[in-house]
Amino acid sequence: MIEPERINTVVIGGGQSGLSVGYHLARRRIPFVILDAKERIGDAWRNRWDSLRLFTPAHEDGLDGMEFPAPREYAPTKDEMADYLESYAEHFELPVRLRTRVDRLSANGDTYMVASGAHVIEAANVVVAMSGWQRGRVPDLAADLDPNIYQIRSEEYRRPSQLPAGDVLVVGAANSGAEVALDLAADRHVWLAGRHPGHIPFDIDGWFGRKIGFRLVGFLFHRVFTKANPLGRKFIAKVYGKGMPLVRTKPKDLVAAGVEMVGRIDEVRDGMPVATDGDVISPHVIVWACGYEPGFDWIDIGVLDDGGYPRHRSGIVDEQPGLYFVGLPFLYSVSSHTVDGVGRDADRVADDIAARNDARQLVSGVASRS
Hints:
Layout: E1 5-12, H1 16-27, E2 32-35, H2 43-46, H3 78-91, E3 96-97, E4 104-108, E5 111-116, E6 119-128, E7 135-136, E8 150-153, E9 168-171, H4 175-184, E10 190-193, H5 207-224, H6 230-239, H7 251-256, E11 260-262, E12 265-269, E13 272-275, E14 285-288, E15 292-293, E16 323-325, H8 342-369
């Protein structure tokens, strides 16, 4: 038997959430390690479609302790964000172990067991610093489609040339689906299927958007729409699981690009997808952008609800002391899963871990003197 490694705190996930948690743990001098399955820090951003840019301007894209190195109003590309995260980890010398996929998280008394292959780490505290968007959702009806239709999930899409020639149906009309549809519409016919989630009523890249509009939205998402007040709880309940309003892409942009808007896809007829309005669509390619599965089935502790999401109080799992979550949508506020929102949640969780460690040391000290 391989002897387990012992570390006070394990952070699972090396994206912006995990690095932010690491920064706040390091400030409190708490021993920790960050585990990430990717080849490089920032790969969760690198491995997205080429034209992706952040919604937020650079002055809101830095994690605690280090500003994003770009002009204040500039909207970074996904690769620039990835490189920033890599330099952030290097600057603060955060202990990140790459190519380390966690297969199982379990509990043994008041100790957590974090397994990656044959290697096991025993920890007093574990922070799952991952989003709730781990696996793209594909509806069951996809299996009934004509096998000649090329199917791909939105998280696998990179660029138009990646796909076979022909018309494309993008299923899912929230931000990812709308941006992918617009990306593809330059040189082929595109249908966009799904319920329109609404949109922010200004151009976020224009003068008003950068100077006023996005600051207002950011204030609402970070300070007002939180679980600490009735207005925030009502807003979160309304949009949870239904897709956030379109931010950069507007319906008029899609129409101008020639994207054809259709209803939801709810059946297959003779191998072809059929929209709720009765239209039979004949695509060569389908891009599934219809939401995600939480992907937490590797957590072998009874803290997940029927939908597979963890039960928690702003990231703290009261029923399982020492277990935490950071980076989930609406963990505390609408901005909790965004680059500019994870720091507050990471700081709160690090505070709780520090208090828990102090309490354990006090109990241990009293026991050793008695």
